[in-house]
Specification:
With 210 residues, this protein is α/β, with parallel strands linked by helices. It is built from eight helices and five strands. The chain has a five-stranded parallel β-sheet with strand order 2-3-1-4-5, with helices on both faces. Helix 1 crosses helix 8, helix 2 packs antiparallel against helix 3 and helix 3 runs parallel beside helix 5. It is globular. The structure holds adenosine-5'-triphosphate and ligand LXEULUCI. The ligand Cc1cn([C@H]2C[C@H](O)[C@@H](COP(=O)(O)O)O2)c(=O)[nH]c1=O binds next to helix 4. This is Thymidylate kinase.
């Protein structure tokens, strides 16, 4: 049976990376009996070529359309080398960001037309969507404070507040457009509270897969 595909999304600093390891470990425990693996990966990145392009994408400024095309080029490689083979083996795939990030950042944040993004999506993965997308949602100020407290900021993280307001709005618009796939996680809560909700959603997904 085909494995399940879970994506994690949210503006920078919303807290998604913090919870990926928790969900992966939780799932792996429950899949042990079935001998299936949980594969964790990320975008941009996920393959040797994708990781090289990530360095460029996160550091270098470029034309908006170049940025969008490179994000989808990384994705094409990621699907071919990692996501599709994992799902065909019956493994579960967790990706730290997928195409919703292109709609949110290049579409919402940078105002690339959604029509162009739809065309790229149709070209690169006409028949593939995550089974569940966790959208970690927080007000901008909370995300910003979390980032400032932790690390040196990359190209995207240095964008202005309006960029993140537009990015967050596009994420929320997509969540409303695809309510069956999205689960909005209120990421202002404590980490244990969030983990409890994630575990309950993962349990439902496991039941559906049985
Ligand atoms: N619910 C939470 N409460 C308090 N702090 C949190 C919470 N979730 C995450 N953090 C902290 O916020 C910081 C940013 O979290 P994290 O790296 O998971 O964000 P992210 O959404 O993955 O960001 P990015 O997309 O930029 O990688 C980390 O220091 C993390 O410990
Ligand atoms: C997939 C994808 C990502 N981005 C941006 C979003 C983030 O700012 C970075 C990735 O950093 P993270 O700490 O690993 O989340 O890339 C984007 O603009 N468009 C995309 O399609």
């Amino acid at each position: 049976m085909r494995g399940k595909f879970i994506s994690f999304e949210g503006i920078d600093g919303a807290g998604k990376s913090t919870h990926i390891r928790y969900v992966a470990d939780y799932l792996q425990q429950r899949l042990k009996a079935q001998k299936h693996q949980v594969i964790c990966s990320r975008e941009p990145g996920g393959t040797p070529l994708g990781e090289q392009l990530r360095e460029v994408l996160l550091k270098q400024s470029m034309h908006l359309e170049t940025e969008a095309l490179l994000m989808f080029a990384v994705r094409r490689e990621h699907i071919a080398q990692v996501i599709q083979p994992a799902l065909e083996r019956g493994d579960w795939m967790i990706s730290d960001r997928f195409t919703d990030a292109s709609f949110a950042y290049q579409g919402g944040g940078r105002h690339l037309s959604l029509e162009k993004l739809n065309q790229l999506e149709q070209w690169v993965h006409p028949d593939l969507q995550p089974d569940i997308t966790f959208l970690f949602d927080v007000p901008l100020e909370v995300a910003r404070a979390r980032l400032d407290a932790t690390r040196e900021l990359d190209k995207f993280e240095q964008e202005k507040a309006q960029f993140f307001a537009d990015t967050r709005n596009e994420y929320l618009r997509r969540a409303a457009q695809f309510p069956q796939r999205f689960r909005i996680i209120d990421s202002t809560r404590s980490i244990p509270e969030i983990q409890q909700e994630l575990a309950a959603i993962v349990d439902q997904l496991l039941q559906q897969a049985e």
